[in-house]
Write a structure and sequence with these properties.
Blueprint lengths: L48 H17 L9 H16 L3 E9 L2 E9 L4 E11 L9 H20 L6 E8 L7 H9 L2 H5 L1 E7 L10 E2 L4 H14 L4 E2 L9 H6 L4 E5 L8 H7 L23 H19 L1
Parallel strand pairs: 3-4, 3-5, 5-8, 6-7
Antiparallel strand pairs: 1-2, 2-4, 6-8
Helix pairs in contact: 1-2, 1-3, 3-9, 6-9
């Protein structure tokens, strides 16, 4: 996540996904004599946190082998992209790499489409893959990148056949001001933008002193994540620390409904938050934010596990 917030834009309301925002349930409605069975919604799979952490181990190894970071224009970033792309290609996704230039260096976005579904209704999930130059960026944002990757691989493992089209993305140069995602959105025609029913963003989802924050940019998408956490009995708060500072911002600016999750950066956890969520009051959610210590050890497994499962819950519910 970049250091400096961009201006907060007016909230966009949408009804495009209201029907899809209900809780996922496999319970059938009781039948009366002669009545047809009620349709069942396929339950989202559990995302194995061990698999998510295995991706983080790989991203850490890539950073260690490439000057200690995975930053835009550096070899560690391209190696990270190649790792993610290889997993997706093997799983049957159609992948494409979009190139751009920022600061005199070449950057890359990776976009992966799951075959099938109504391409006039695209449900999209993404995360930035780049780190800052100061460190390996395992929470910021290996955590979001790995969680989205494992959710995509779960789509393949279960051979999910959604009614809507599923698309995943890993953005470059977010740390320079959402350069990669803005480049992608700007490259879309008006028609292509209108086909994106919703974009879900995951930037820092494993903070070591975690909070559970939900984007409030779109009511329907906000409800999806609030419902998920309500089912766990975990209270949430509205996300404000990263408002306008991550890759959802270009989508929102283009009129596309956005949502997402966040576990906190360098703001300090209050006593009230520590009472709700555990952890340490008065300490940052991530004391290693944008630092060399943002390593594979800088992750809270419980937060990573819950947020990874929440991604799958949203995708299965929204894409149908």
């Amino acid at each position: 996540m970049p250091l400096h917030p961009s201006p907060i834009r007016p909230r966009l309301a949408t009804t495009a996904l209201l029907a899809a925002a209900a809780l996922i349930t496999a319970a059938a409605t009781p039948l009366t004599a002669g009545a047809a069975p009620a349709p069942r919604t396929l339950a989202a799979p559990d995302i194995p946190v061990a698999s998510v952490k295995a991706h983080l181990t790989q991203l850490q190894s890539i950073a260690t082998a490439n000057g200690g970071n995975r930053a835009h224009g550096r070899p560690g970033y391209k190696a990270s992209l190649d790792y993610v792309k290889g997993k997706l290609d093997a799983a049957g996704f159609t992948t494409s790499v979009k190139q751009f230039t920022s600061g005199g260096r070449t950057g890359y976005n990776l976009v992966a489409d799951w075959p099938g579904g109504d391409t006039s209704q695209v449900v999209m999930a993404g995360a930035h893959l780049d780190s800052v130059t100061a460190g390996p960026g395992i929470n910021d944002n290996g955590s979001g990148s790995a969680a989205v990757l494992e959710a995509a691989l779960a789509v393949s493992r279960t051979q999910f056949k959604p009614a809507k089209h599923l698309r995943f993305a890993w953005w470059g140069a977010e740390e320079l001001g959402m350069v990669g995602s803005r480049n992608y959105v700007n490259s879309l025609s008006v028609t292509d933008r209108s086909r994106i029913a919703g974009y879900l963003n995951f930037d820092m989802v494993g903070s070591p002193n975690p909070g559970y924050f939900v984007y409030d940019d779109d009511p329907a998408l906000e409800k999806v994540f609030k419902d998920y956490y309500a089912g766990l009995g975990v209270p949430t708060e509205i996300e404000t620390e990263g408002d306008g500072r991550s890759d959802h911002a270009p989508f929102k600016s283009a009129g596309i409904p956005v949502g997402g999750l966040f576990s906190g950066a360098d703001y300090r956890k209050t006593s009230a938050q520590a009472q709700k969520w555990g952890g340490t009051a008065g300490k940052p959610f991530d004391a290693c934010y944008h630092s060399a210590c943002d390593t594979a050890a800088n992750i809270d497994t419980t937060a990573l596990d819950r947020n990874s499962d929440a991604i799958a819950y949203a995708l299965w519910g929204l894409a149908g």
